[in-house]
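Notebook, student rotation project (T.W.).
Task set for the rotation: take a protein with a known small-molecule partner, predict the structure of the complex, and write up what can be learned from the model alone. Partner molecule chosen: S-adenosylmethionine. Sequence and SMILES entered below by T.W., checked by me.
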Amino acid sequence: MKRKVITTSDGSTSIEMEEWGETYHSIHGAIQEARHVYIERGFDKINKPVIKVLEMGFGTGLNAFLTLVEARKQGKKVEYHSIEAFPVTEQESSALDFSALYSTKEDELLFKQMHQCSWNELNEITPNFNLHKIHSTFEEAVVNQCFFDVVYFDVFGYQFQPDLWSVEIFKKVYDALDTTGVLVTYACRGPIKRVMKEVGFTTEKVEGPPGKREMLVAYKL
Ligand SMILES: C[S@@+](CC[C@H](N)C(=O)[O-])C[C@H]1O[C@@H](n2cnc3c(N)ncnc32)[C@H](O)[C@@H]1O
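Predicted structure of the complex:
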C-alpha cells in the first residue's frame, strides 16, 4: 500500500497510508500524541532503573526515540524490543523530521542509527539504550514471556486491522508482560476493552491526547 510522509499540527512528521487515509500518529501532533500515550501513561509509570519495553509497530521510530530521550532525562536504562513487518524505507526515514526532540547534533545521528541498525538482534544505540527490532508480523513474532514492563500497543486502527485487536494478539502481549506490567494504547473502543478483559487485563480509561477524549491503560495484575 502506498505511504507518504506528512506534517502534523505540532510540526512533527508522520506517515499516512494513502488508501486508508490512516496515519501512524495523530494529525493533531505526532510528538504530542506519542509523548502523552506512551511516555506519560506508560514509560513514566514504571519505577525501575532498567525498563523493558515491547512495542507493537516500530514504524517511524518516534516512540523509540522519545523513550531514549526520556530515559536519558531520568537516568534510566532501557531494553527496547519492537515488532515491525513493513519497515519504512531509507527515503521515508530521511524525510521524517523529529528535530524538536534533538538536544544536540548527535541526537540526529542516534535517530538515524535506530533506523539503520540490524534487525533481529540487540543493538547498543547508547550505553543506556539497547534496541531489538524484530522483523516479523505480530501474528508470527516470538517474544519473551513474563519479561516486559510496558507494552506500547501502537497498531493501526480497529476499523482497518480488526484482527490485530484480537484475543490471540492481546494474549501474546499479556504473556509477554511481567506480573506488574502495563499496556498502553491510544485506542478506547468497547470491543477492544472487552478483548483485553477476556485475556485477563484490568482496564482503565484515562484522558487521551489533544484531539482524542480517551485512551486505554491495561494492567496485568
Ligand atoms: C500506527 S503504526 C506504528 C507507529 C510507530 N509506533 C511509530 O512510532 O511510528 C503501525 C505499524 O504497524 C505495522 N504493521 C501493520 N500490520 C502489521 C503486522 N501484521 N505485523 C507487524 N507490523 C505490522 C505498520 O507497518 C506500522 O509501522
